[in-house]
Amino acid sequence: MRTTADTVDLFNRVFTDHDATALPDLIADDCVMDAIQPAPDGARVEGRDACLAFWQALAADRTTRFEPEEVTVAGDRATIRWRYHFGDGHADSVRGVTLVRVSDGRIVEALGYSKTGGVPLAAETERTTREVLDRYNEAFRSHDPGLLKDLIADDCVIEDSGPAPDGARHEGGQACLERWSELAGNRALRFTPETAEIQGELAVQPWLLQWGDGERDRVRGVSLLRIRGGRIVEARGYVKA
Questions:
Q1: What residue ranges define each of the domains in the chain, with the CATH number in brackets?
Q2: How, if at all, do strands 65-74 and 44-46 pair?
Q3: In whole angstroms, what is the distance from residue 34 CA to residue 40 CA?
Q4: Separation between Cα atoms, residue 77 and residue 73, nearest integer Å
Q5: Nearest-CA neighbor of 132 among 64, 234, 62, 227?
Q6: What are residue 226's phi and psi, to 5 degrees?
Q7: What are the backbone dihedrals phi and psi of residue 86, each rounded to the nearest 5 degrees, phi first?
Q8: Which of 13, 62, 35, 64 minimizes the C-alpha distance to 142?
Q9: Is the pTM of this model over 0.70?
């Protein structure tokens, strides 16, 4: 059986190497993870499949770099101090800590925290495009429409991926919230975000959508989300046809 130190070492290497191969065997069925955002509690992810999807997407993002700084192990618990880089400059990074609990060689709990940059209340700052995108993705990945609250601008417009030729159009914050809440709450769908590109206020988010276990029970697509003032103002979806 793996020790706590062995499990944490493998877990860290998933993110340093951008290789999630070892990840499925590191997560317990009853795993619970608290993400570092949004304030005040961080998004809560429950269950092996949901935690696996979250961490796989994080590991796949090669625009970022994870740097473990110190690991302390005591029994079934470990403290991982790290720096997360999302650019080349020192200011394009943040320090944080993840508190991990391991049972029978698998992670059962991971609680993440990060520096706030000296701002007393995160709610007082404008969310970045990346922060909005991460929370948006998590709503669909964890089937939690509640995470969409406060992410959608009053004048938001959605263009669905279908039907051809233009895709269904939804206008206004309430209409967009209802549309996305319907999709996020549908547990028959499995949404897996792939590596995204951030181009200023535009987020280019490829994804995989599955509604069954068969080879044809899936489709790949991409969403172009325009984010201003910490809220989504436009979303246009496209799929393979």
A1: 4-114 (3.10.450.50), 126-239 (3.10.450.50)
A2: unpaired
A3: 11
A4: 6
A5: 227
A6: -100, 125
A7: -125, 20
A8: 35
A9: no
Backbone angles phi, psi at 149, to 5 degrees: -60, 135
Instruction: Print pLDDT tens along the chain (241 aa).
Output: 899 999 999 999 999 999 999 999 999 999 999 988 877 788 889 999 999 999 998 898 888 899 999 999 999 999 999 999 988 777 788 899 999 999 999 999 999 999 865 433 333 345 788 889 999 999 999 999 989 988 999 999 999 999 988 899 999 999 999 999 999 999 999 999 998 998 889 999 999 999 999 888 999 999 999 999 889 999 999 998 7
The amino acid present at 49, given as its one-letter code, is: D
User: What is the rounded distance in angstroms from the CA atom of residue 12 to the CA atom of residue 210?
Assistant: 28
Whole-number Å distance between alpha carbons of 123 and 38:
9
CA distance 22 to 7: 10
Cβ 27 vs Cβ 47: under 8 Å: no
Closest CA to 236 of 165, 160, 166, 171: 160
